[in-house]
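Today's session is about reading a structure prediction critically. Students often jump straight to the picture, but the first step is always the sequence itself: look for stretches that repeat, for charged clusters, for runs of hydrophobic residues. Only then move on to the predicted structure, which in these notes is written as discrete structure tokens rather than atom positions. Here is the chain we will use throughout the hour.
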Amino acid sequence: MGLEVGGYNSEPDWPKMGPSMLIATCLILAIRTAKWPPQWHETASDPNVDSEIEYAYRLASRVFSTLIARHAIMFPSKQKPWYQPDGEDSPK
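Below is the predicted structure for this chain, in token form.
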């Protein structure tokens, strides 16, 4: 008693896009902070840098989600099967 594959849906392969997301976030951060004066702090956290990192990530996420919604072919995808219901599982 196995389920029959009815077909496949193409979905974005998010794990393969992780490095691209990291690079995009770093590029946005580098461009936004390029003219900042060099600072050498002994502290582990700088609120200005932390907020810029968060902003860069949010901006990169918005770009990716918009491009995936409109131009999904640009990104790696995977085929996820969908299954046909059995006679017992079908609604009556």
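Discussion point for the tutorial: The two ends are 20 Å apart (CA to CA).
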